[in-house]
Design brief:
The protein has helices at 2-24, 35-44, 46-63. It is mainly α.
């Protein structure tokens, strides 16, 4: 239980960091980047991959099967 909670907080932290960088890099549009150039730049930056990694961790935490203490007769 505690492990899932800590893992969930870690995934949330990664999502926040990745999303912040995603928003920061929106300033590239003011330099004349197009949408295609913007997304091709985001793919090359590891900071933006933290958003996807955080989302995957959160999916595993939320939908993963936990240990069941219920014993069947």
């Amino acid at each position: 239980m505690l492990f899932r909670l800590l893992f969930g907080v870690f995934g949330f932290f990664l999502m926040v960091v990745g999303f912040c960088y995603l928003i920061i890099y929106i300033n590239l549009f003011s330099f004349g980047y197009t949408i295609d150039e913007y997304f091709s730049y985001l793919v090359t930056r590891y900071e933006c991959w933290l958003l996807i990694v955080g989302i995957v961790i959160e999916i595993f935490v939320i939908f993963g099967k936990g240990k069941s203490n219920v014993k069947c007769l």
